[in-house]
Design brief:
With 360 residues, the chain is of the alpha/beta class. It has 15 helices and 10 strands. It has 2 domains: 111 residues, Aspartate Aminotransferase, domain 1, CATH 3.90.1150.10; 237 residues, Type I PLP-dependent aspartate aminotransferase-like (Major domain) (Aspartate Aminotransferase, domain 2, 3-Layer(aba) Sandwich), CATH 3.40.640.10. The longest helix has 26 residues. Bound molecules: pyridoxal-5'-phosphate (PLP).
Length: 360
């Protein structure tokens, strides 16, 4: 084995999927690694994980396990749509910006109907506009609304907002799908139960993300109306998403759900984001682009500050809304957050002094 550069082991906050596997998911995988089990989901771990979801969501939902979020979203949306249908989403939605056309591909052509949004949230008004814009046969028929909870922009839909969106969907005969790649962060932020944030608020299908919550791999697709899940197993198989050793996709969920790690992990990540935001928001030259409601913080700062921060070894993305994004995860080390804050502060001070020097 080649030696790893210790620098590569330092925590970065460019994405919450830079983190490893949390102990609860890891130990459940290990526990599942004894003896043989029936393949393709007909095993005790898959049954136990599905039941854990039903218990957590307080309802008899249908549960499927797939490898990643792109598959979960694409297959869930495809199951709600015919090829001539439209899916209403935000311009910043992962399905629009980061899934390489997979939702259109797996639905055989359903079109994404994109709403412009400054905050990264859909509103009843934006849904109404897209749902009623055209009624003629030349335009794809709106069928589904999809929202991301928490959003790509680090915001969280309140229960009131969810209720209003659901009412709007019902008024136009639209299904409501939730991309929950960071669903746990939203629950932790709201202090609400998973049931309240989903089916009690009118959500028909949820893609519940495990990867960013502390698992190696895996997302769960939950259908709250079982009829919508018809033939979903065939869809998964055709898309290459039916794990043959399914117990290893399912067991980590048992570890996450039965221990409560799913919520603890998210609460920790959210806490670190707030801790970061509180420290950097008072730095001259830096300002928060949006309130911190989940595990993301977006900073507005000039390149004179951001470049030197990069040169000190920090990684982050600026392609989302032009702001510098910092994401916190289940294992974020507060000391590492503080180190980043110190570097931001020093780089901002240096940029400020240089500016003063040029001015005089
Ligand atoms: C990460 C993420 C996904 C899933 O992405 P995959 O890389 O396909 O697992 C889906 N939606 C959102 C909002 C995400 O941030």
């Amino acid at each position: 084995m080649t030696e790893m550069d210790p620098k590569d082991l330092l925590q970065q906050f460019a994405s919450d999927n830079y983190a490893g596997i949390c102990p609860e998911a890891w130990s459940a995988s290990e526990a599942a690694n004894h003896g043989h089990a029936t393949a393709y989901g007909d095993d005790p771990w898959t049954a136990r994980a599905s039941d854990a979801f039903r218990e957590l969501f307080e309802t008899d939902c249908e549960v499927f396990f797939v490898f990643n979020g792109t598959a979960a979203n694409s297959l869930a949306l495809a199951s709600l749509c015919q090829s001539y249908h439209g899916v209403i989403c935000c311009d910043s939605a992962h399905i629009e910006t980061d899934e390489c056309g997979a939702p259109e591909f797996f639905s055989n052509g359903s079109k994404l109907l994109v709403a412009q949004s400054a905050e990264g949230k859909l509103t009843p008004a934006s849904i109404r506009e897209l749902a009623t814009k055209r009624q003629d046969i030349h335009y794809p028929k709106p069928r589904v609304v999809t929202i991301t909870q928490s959003t790509e922009t680090g915001r969280v839909y309140t229960l009131a907002e969810l209720g209003a969106i659901s009412d709007e969907c019902k008024a136009h005969g639209l299904y409501l799908h939730m991309d929950g790649a960071r669903f746990a962060n939203a629950c932790a932020s709201l202090g609400c139960s998973p049931a309240e944030v989903t089916w009690k608020s009118g959500v028909d299908v949820l893609c519940f993300g495990g990867t960013k919550n502390g698992m190696a791999v895996g997302e769960a697709v939950l259908f709250f109306d079982r009829r919508l899940a018809a033939d979903f197993d065939y869809r998964c198989k055709q898309a290459g998403q039916l794990a043959s050793k399914m117990r290893f996709l399912a067991a980590p969920w048992v570890g996450m759900l039965e221990s409560g790690a799913w919520l603890r992990n998210a609460a920790h990540a959210n806490h670190c984001a707030r801790h970061f935001a509180a420290q950097v928001s008072s730095i001259r030259g830096i300002r928060l682009a949006a309130p911190v409601e989940a595990n993301a913080a977006f900073l507005l700062a000039p390149e004179e500050i951001l470049n030197p921060v990069r040169e000190r070894g920090w990684r982050f993305y600026t392609f989302i809304g032009g702001a510098a994004r910092f994401m916190f995860s289940w294992d974020t080390d507060p000391a590492r957050v503080d180190a980043l804050c110190r570097d931001l502060k020093e780089c901002a001070a240096q940029a400020h002094f240089q500016q003063l020097g040029m001015d005089t």
